């Protein structure tokens, strides 16, 4: 790359168009007509994307599903060719784009380490020198000598990440792969990525976790509809993305003290009259537009969510300590065995996953479910939050320790926590009020010891 030697990655006017064929035979027609007629529709995943990344920069790439995040990373790594524009890279790229990509499932973990190292341009001698460090970082024990096809998704990402970061890349690209790892391994990876950046490695990091992007990246790029809409300081860009999501999910918050934050829906009235939770089943046709992401097998799918107060009125605002009723509706698409595990978490713009509630805490699991059935789950809890806007993520998976989901939806319901007038003047710190806190101090001194002075 000529010019500024500090620029390790340059993306200039990159666009990507995919040909969408209605029928497979139309591909043959397109070939035979030699371009004289189009048998496809054009889908532009990227339009005129341009940005430079400097050595040692940590850049987050954020945006809703379909925004073009993965496409631009695949073009940078060379697995996709752009329709127009160019990408220049100065140095070695290591990429963790898709779980297990580059692994041969029939090979052992040991063999795949050498296979991946060779793909990344390392000699056998260089891999030999790094092998113990890779094994220590992956921490999968004797499974290193077992075929990769026997690995769980968590073990797969441990080994894949260890190989990628131990080759001393000039540019490291990570696309949400860490989401399947356990919390402790995720933190281990984040700390290591920070150290890599301090040593001059450049990082491109795609994530839906705004808290992680804020803490890891100095800069962020927001994509929407295949275009860059914001490129700047990570905190500013994350705020822009958050505000966009708030507008899409539920509009601007109601004014404090306004009665507009409480609406009595017909569903809520039915619940009050009948006393049956099943009457609260809802199917929200706008749910797909509201949620920022949904993943999973689709054997069970969420259809709608609602939040009620203790009197059965639907709310979008609550005081700290107020009883809230969270109702999740879902449809069963495929028979599933008994024992499914339901959970939801709450996070704010700056702190994801502050509170997690799950069926295991109530000693409950879902019964055996059959295709076509509808399910409603209601959870009551006292809001522990100080003033902020809080978003729900909902999930349902086969077992509590399962690493796969029937469905997981992000940012699907929100409410505003507010302080009562009498609480507004109190010294309020943090996000949640701790309950039952006590503290004692005991000073132990040697007999005869005196304090100086």
Descriptive report:
It is a single chain. The protein is an alpha/beta fold and 453 residues long. It folds into two domains: 7-247, Rossmann fold; 253-420, Distorted Sandwich (Coagulation Factor XIII, Chain A, domain 1), CATH 2.70.50. Helix content is 24%, strand content 30%. It has ten helices and 20 strands. The protein has helices spanning 25-32, 69-77, 109-119, 124-138, 153-165, 183-198, 210-216, 234-249, 266-274, 287-290; strands at 7-20, 41-54, 58-62, 84-89, 93-96, 171-175, 202-206, 219-224, 227-233, 262-263, 293-295, 300-308, 314-315, 317-319, 323-332, 341-347, 355-358, 374-382, 388-397, 407-418. The chain has a six-stranded mixed beta sheet with strand order 5-6-7-3-8-9, with helices on both faces. Strands 11, 14, 16, 17, 19 and 20 form a six-stranded mixed beta sheet that branches. A hairpin with a 2-residue loop joins strand 8 (219-224) and strand 9 (227-233). Helix 3 (109-119) crosses helix 4 and helix 4 (124-138) crosses helix 5. It is globular, with a radius of gyration of 26 Å. Mean pLDDT is 80; it is low at 248-277.
């Amino acid at each position: 790359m000529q010019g500024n030697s500090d620029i390790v990655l340059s993306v200039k006017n990159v666009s990507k168009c995919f040909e969408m064929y209605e029928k497979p035979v139309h591909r043959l027609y397109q070939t035979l007509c030699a371009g004289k007629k189009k048998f496809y529709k054009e889908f532009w995943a990227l339009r005129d994307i341009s940005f430079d990344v400097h050595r040692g920069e940590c850049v987050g790439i954020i945006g809703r599903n379909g925004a073009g995040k993965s496409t631009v990373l695949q073009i940078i790594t060379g697995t996709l060719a752009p329709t127009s524009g160019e990408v220049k890279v100065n140095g070695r790229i290591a990429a963790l784009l898709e779980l297990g990509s580059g692994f041969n499932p029939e090979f052992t973990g040991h063999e795949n380490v050498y296979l991946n190292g060779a793909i990344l341009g390392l000699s056998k001698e260089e891999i030999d020198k790094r092998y113990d460090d890779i094994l220590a970082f992956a921490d999968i024990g004797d499974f290193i000598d077992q075929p990769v096809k026997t690995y769980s998704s968590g073990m797969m990402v441990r080994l894949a990440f260890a190989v990628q970061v131990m080759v001393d890349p000039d540019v490291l690209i990570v696309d949400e792969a860490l989401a399947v790892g356990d919390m402790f391994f995720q933190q281990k990876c984040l700390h290591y990525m920070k150290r890599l950046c301090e040593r001059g490695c450049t990082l491109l990091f795609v994530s839906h976790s705004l808290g992680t992007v804020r803490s890891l990246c100095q800069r962020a790029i927001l994509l929407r509809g295949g275009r860059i809409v914001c490129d700047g300081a990570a905190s500013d860009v994350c705020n822009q993305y958050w505000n966009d999501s708030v507008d899409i999910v539920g509009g601007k918050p109601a004014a404090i003290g306004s009665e507009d934050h409480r609406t009595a829906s017909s569903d809520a009235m039915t619940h009050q009259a009948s006393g049956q939770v099943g009457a609260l089943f809802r199917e929200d046709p706008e749910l797909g537009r509201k949620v920022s992401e949904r993943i999973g097998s689709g054997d069970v799918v969420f259809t709608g969510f609602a939040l009620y107060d203790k009197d059965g009125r639907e709310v979008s605002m609550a005081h700290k300590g107020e009883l809230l009723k969270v109702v999740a509706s879902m449809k069963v698409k495929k028979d599933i065995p008994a024992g499914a595990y339901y959970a939801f978490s709450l996070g704010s713009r700056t702190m994801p996953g502050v509170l997690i509630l799950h069926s295991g805490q109530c000693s409950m699991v879902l019964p055996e479910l059959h295709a076509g059935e509808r399910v409603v789950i209601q959870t009551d809890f006292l809001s522990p939050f100080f003033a902020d806007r809080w978003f729900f993520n909902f999930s349902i998976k086969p077992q509590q320790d399962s690493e796969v989901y029937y469905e997981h939806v992000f940012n699907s319901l929100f409410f505003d926590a507010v302080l009562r007038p009498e609480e507004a003047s109190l010294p309020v710190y943090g996000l949640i009020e701790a309950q039952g806190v006590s503290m004692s101090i005991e000073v132990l001194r040697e007999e005869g010891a005196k304090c100086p002075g």
